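I would like you to sit down with the pair of lines that follows and say whether tokens and residues agree.
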Amino acid sequence: MNDIDKDRAEENFRRLEEALQERLPVVRQPHLGYGVAFAASAFLLLIVATLVLSAVLGSHDGKLQKDSLEKIASLPRMSVYAMGVGYLGTLVWSFFLYPHFWKRPYFDVLQWNFAAVRRYWLLLLTGGVGLSIAAGIAERFVSVPDTAPMNAFFKDRADLWLITIFGSTVAPFFEEMMFRGYFLPGVAIAFDWLRLEHSDAARAHWESSSTVSLQAVVFSGIFTSIGFAALHASQLANTWGAVFLLFCVSCVLTSVRVRLNSLAASTLLHASYNATLFMVTFIATGGYQHLEKLQR
């Protein structure tokens, strides 16, 4: 076969492939199953990482002491290490595996859309600062117990630096991907599918369109924001006022994600929000040098 015949054959194959794709039903992605698998993986990896790291750091002379294991596992920094393993491990395998099912690039399916960040980056950064200030004012009317697990990070300078870096980078990236990258569209798709009429016309529309209804988006936004707040509830000793505040913050992040059609935009806003909270603490304690001021 000469080069001309080879080019014609490749062109005919491409046209045939496009024709077949046009006949196939539209597959809405990422559906809820991908989000559930993503979250379950992070949870399982977090547990495994906690057990392994606690066992390694709690062993003495090759022997594992029960009291040492419990003490190591309870350290605030241990939760950060375990979350880091769980989050990054999940991101790595999903990045390489999911595109094989989607037949599309990973960040295209999740609607990363970094162009929105290039256009609105200053507004997103200042929006994160403003959101954190508003949350800080609201927190004055909420009483979180001193025994809340989150407060444990504010007693040691090294732990506080660790959670500052993690909470301003890895955490917002992963949480946005899980809640507004996977679950927001996944729940919306499931909502519309459950409401789908049992008719040929409705089925034909479902197979020819990838859009979701406004009702589905609103329901999914509220539902996933409840999940976002619930994820952090234990860190705040289940203080309902603080949990509701996080729900409101999540609704704002969801609105930005939907309005700009950009997961990157809500991620930058989330990171700016978290970083500002830590920056206020950094300034108030003289660069984390006087943590006793936080106990007053």
About this structure: Residues 1-106 form one domain. The radius of gyration is 23 Å. The beta strands are 59-60, 63-64.
